[in-house]
Amino acid sequence: MEKSQWSDLHWDLILIITNQLGLIDLLSFRGVCNYWRSAASSLKASAEIESLEPRPWFLLYGETAQCSLLTGDHRMYRIEIPELAESTCLQSFVGWLLLYGKNSKSLAFFCPFSGVKIEIPPCPLISEQSESDLYAAFSSYPTDLDCTVVVVKHNKDLKKMNLCMLRRGESEWTFHEHNIDRIRFAGKIKSIAIYQRAFHFLDEDSTLVEFKYDTMRWINYNIVASGSSTSAKKLNYLALEWINRDSFSSKRNEMKQLLGIDRCSISICGAMILQGDANHHLRSYEFVEEDEEESNKPRRELKGVWLQPRFHQISEDQQRW
Amino acid sequence: MSSSVEAITVLSSDGDEFKITVSAAKLSKPLNWMLEDVCFSDDCDEVPTIEVNSKTLVKVIEYCEKHAPRANSGASDSDAEELKKWDIEFMKMDVKDILFHILMAANYLHMEGLYDLACQTAADLMKGMTVSQIRKIFHIKNDFSSEEQEQLRRQHPGCSFD
């Protein structure tokens, strides 16, 4: 075949073109030839355009490296992600997952499409902890110099919320606890939001606990209907309404059918979905129980996570916090 | 030559002569400079050469002539809509032979609108395509080793590389 001029396009052009491609198209672009691939890598093409898409993708994992990926417009793909076979996702934000490695008992940021990983120093809170009570969140892109990660231990028997915090560049986690006995924080944490340099922990009811990570101050709030109180603070994200309407549970049959699964339980990791100038929204932590019928079939325990599809790349010095 | 000329003659890189109206030439800075040179110099017999081949230059001039009225006087929304449709039709061209040269010409002639349109067209041609379809459209040879191919296959959900 005669060499096409397209195979050594000027980088300016490659930048303009890749800026217009969503994640699947970007992956295809990277698969065309060596030159296109290395140019897209050097230009750090990340499919940012997909962040404008309001519907997050869903990644089902948990048994082997074989995962199922459901795009926002309901296309289903099989994808091999070895890192997820041994890990549990604790948070999903801006295209990064925060993973807890079962064997290593360590935390790392991970981009499931590029496969890049950023390891963070071990968190003292999770050494002896069963992962079902573990929650975590991070404040921004892990590559940002002021990114802050928190790990929270909470269950309904505890009268305290225990939190460990690490800022990028620091080697020691700091401990912070908050007495929640008086505020009736119902059972489990349902969602975690990032709002104006604070983490917001929301329960299943309408209680919100805020932790400002610069001043390390805790504040309790009650969530009220919009407009019902003039003194109420307005948030830039949609919480409870959205949780009810867009949860996995609320459309479990459709989701299970799309993913091609039947008898299984799925524990789903929370996510905060950014939406440009519009209100951001939260996807909650959920545990979807298996169906009662068909008890003769073997049971599967799967995990899932909502995510904003991005192709993140890092430089070598960013592999460790 | 007086400044009342309505069209100038230019040569393509293949040596063919083309006529372009003054208002259309204004879409490109280099063309506009040429135009001023031609209009105001005493030596008006010289025909300037544009380093774009004939096949491409025909299309570039077609684009300029179509866009000139709007660029020079502004246009209503309905005109803009009509022009958008025209652009889409205009861009239905052979990818290997013309689209690439249009991109290069738009760059060389500082025609931002045409450059963006050609980039957009190239990106649109890739959307929803498999890797092998993209290679076919853009006539690109697969130069990955089988190991690299295997790694790409694993990373790229559900895409056919064959």
UniProtKB/TrEMBL annotation, chain A:
<dbReference type="InterPro" id="IPR036047">
    <property type="entry name" value="F-box-like_dom_sf"/>
</dbReference>
<feature type="domain" description="F-box">
    <location>
        <begin position="6"/>
        <end position="44"/>
    </location>
</feature>
<protein>
    <recommendedName>
        <fullName>F-box protein</fullName>
    </recommendedName>
</protein>
<dbReference type="InterPro" id="IPR005174">
    <property type="entry name" value="KIB1-4_b-propeller"/>
</dbReference>
<dbReference type="Pfam" id="PF00646">
    <property type="entry name" value="F-box"/>
</dbReference>
<feature type="domain" description="KIB1-4 beta-propeller">
    <location>
        <begin position="73"/>
        <end position="214"/>
    </location>
</feature>
<dbReference type="InterPro" id="IPR001810">
    <property type="entry name" value="F-box_dom"/>
</dbReference>
<dbReference type="Pfam" id="PF03478">
    <property type="entry name" value="Beta-prop_KIB1-4"/>
</dbReference>
TrEMBL record, chain B:
<protein>
    <recommendedName>
        <fullName>SKP1-like protein</fullName>
    </recommendedName>
</protein>
<dbReference type="InterPro" id="IPR011333">
    <property type="entry name" value="SKP1/BTB/POZ_sf"/>
</dbReference>
<dbReference type="InterPro" id="IPR016897">
    <property type="entry name" value="SKP1"/>
</dbReference>
<dbReference type="Pfam" id="PF03931">
    <property type="entry name" value="Skp1_POZ"/>
</dbReference>
<comment type="function">
    <text>Involved in ubiquitination and subsequent proteasomal degradation of target proteins. Together with CUL1, RBX1 and a F-box protein, it forms a SCF E3 ubiquitin ligase complex. The functional specificity of this complex depends on the type of F-box protein. In the SCF complex, it serves as an adapter that links the F-box protein to CUL1.</text>
</comment>
<dbReference type="GO" id="GO:0016567">
    <property type="term" value="P:protein ubiquitination"/>
</dbReference>
<comment type="pathway">
    <text>Protein modification; protein ubiquitination.</text>
</comment>
<dbReference type="InterPro" id="IPR001232">
    <property type="entry name" value="SKP1-like"/>
</dbReference>
<feature type="domain" description="SKP1 component dimerisation">
    <location>
        <begin position="113"/>
        <end position="157"/>
    </location>
</feature>
<dbReference type="InterPro" id="IPR016073">
    <property type="entry name" value="Skp1_comp_POZ"/>
</dbReference>
<keyword id="KW-0833">Ubl conjugation pathway</keyword>
<dbReference type="InterPro" id="IPR016072">
    <property type="entry name" value="Skp1_comp_dimer"/>
</dbReference>
<feature type="domain" description="SKP1 component POZ">
    <location>
        <begin position="8"/>
        <end position="67"/>
    </location>
</feature>
<comment type="subunit">
    <text>Part of a SCF (SKP1-cullin-F-box) protein ligase complex.</text>
</comment>
<dbReference type="GO" id="GO:0006511">
    <property type="term" value="P:ubiquitin-dependent protein catabolic process"/>
</dbReference>
<dbReference type="Pfam" id="PF01466">
    <property type="entry name" value="Skp1"/>
</dbReference>
<comment type="similarity">
    <text>Belongs to the SKP1 family.</text>
</comment>
<dbReference type="GO" id="GO:0009867">
    <property type="term" value="P:jasmonic acid mediated signaling pathway"/>
</dbReference>
<dbReference type="InterPro" id="IPR036296">
    <property type="entry name" value="SKP1-like_dim_sf"/>
</dbReference>
